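Final report, closing paragraph on structural work. Over the funding period we assembled a curated collection of sequence-structure pairs, and we close with a single example.
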Amino acid sequence: MKKDPVKMLSVAESQKKLEKFKVKFAKSKTAKTAAEAAKLSRQIGFPVAMKIISPDIMHKTEAGCIETNIKSETQASKVFRQIVSNALKANKSAKIHGVLIQEHVNGQEVIIGGKKDVQFGPVVLFGLGGIFVEAIKDYSIRIAPVTPAEAKEMIEEIRGRKLLEGMRGKEPANKNALKKLIVSVGKFISSEENFLELDLNPVIVNSKEAVVVDARIIYSS
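Its predicted structure, as stored:
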C-alpha cells in the first residue's frame, strides 16, 4: 500500500509555528557562509553549537553535522565548512539551507513529543532525554490539549523525576516552566490541521527556564 506523502518542517520553520504558542527556543541564527557563521556566533556569544539545516540529513549526529562547544570565530568558520562537507558526503544531493548557530544552554535534557494517534487523536509525551525514553521507556502520555494539572502529573509520574529535583549539588529544574511548555505543546498539536508528529528533542530545563534546542514537526501533505 502506498503511504501518504508527508511534509517535515525544519527547525526554523518549526520554531516560527511554535513560538506563536509561547514555546521558547534557544537563541539561534542561520548562517549561509563560513564568514557569516563567525559573525553570528560572536553576536550570540560563545560557546555556541552548530548544526546543518537540511531536509535530506535525517541523522545529523551520525553524519557529523552537529558540533558543540565552539569557542571562537576561527573555529566557527572551520566548523561551518566541515559540517557542510560532511552533509554532502552523507548525501551528495542534499539540499543545504544553511547552518544553525545556537547558544549553549546548560541543564537537564528532556523530551516533549506529540503525535496523532489513530485511536485517541492528538497525544502529548514527556520524558527525560537520552536512554530514559529509548531504552528504559520512562515517559508519560496524555491526550491533548493538556491542563496544567495534567502537565504536573506527567512530570511527577516518570521514574527519573528525581533528576529534575536537583541531585549532587545541581539546582532543581524549573518545573513550572516545564509544565507551561507541555501545556503549550498540547494546545499546538490539538489545533493544527494535518498534524502527524512533533518532536522537541532536546528541551533543556534548568532553574530559570525550559527552552527547546531542536524541533521537528511532520504534517500530512
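The first helix runs from residue 11 to 18. The domain at 28-103 is CATH 3.30.1490.20 (Dna Ligase; domain 1). We thank the funder for supporting this effort.
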